[in-house]
Design a protein that fits this description.
By secondary structure, the chain is of the alpha+beta class. It has a domain at 1-51: HIT family, subunit A. Helices cover 20% and strands 22% of the residues. It has two helices and five strands; from the N terminus they run H-E-E-E-H-E-E. Strands 1-2-3-5-4 form a five-stranded antiparallel beta sheet. The protein binds adenosine monophosphate (AMP).
Length: 113
């Protein structure tokens, strides 16, 4: 079965893409948990942070650097935001393609659990 995030990256499935470059794609979460909720994903299929290796260090750095690009595009740089990456069953990862959630546009609730 093809990964839904790979399909969005390749334009085979509709996605509200806000940013795309050689390494990463950022698109709006279909079920937003905040006024601004963007997912940043590597274009290469990497299942989770557990599958991210040092030979993909450019991808890792591009994922992190894209956060600031997205915050700027979404006008949430000044007030801030929260970033989350769920991993595996205890992390309640639903889509098995590494992604960073960028949540902003309103104050987050306290706590992380
Ligand atoms: P996670 O629980 O960290 O794996 O989060 C997966 C996220 O992907 C959830 O917030 C979903 O709402 C989101 N999602 C699932 N399918 C799509 C889709 N087709 N387009 C955009 N976001 C999606």
């Amino acid at each position: 079965m093809t990964c839904i995030f790979c399909q969005i990256i390749q334009g085979e499935m509709p996605g509200d893409i806000v940013l795309q470059n050689e390494y990463i794609t950022a698109f709006r979460d279909i079920n937003p948990a905040a006024p601004k909720h963007i997912l940043i994903v590597p274009n290469k299929h990497i299942a989770s942070t557990e599958d991210l290796h040092r030979h993909d260090s450019i991808i890792a750095s591009e994922l992190l650097l894209a956060i600031k690009d997205v915050s700027s595009l979404e006008n949430i740089s000044q007030n801030g935001y929260r970033i989350i990456s769920n991993c595996g069953s205890h992390g309640r990862q639903e889509v098995q393609h590494l992604h960073i959630h960028v949540l902003g546009g309103a104050p987050m609730k306290y706590g992380l659990g």
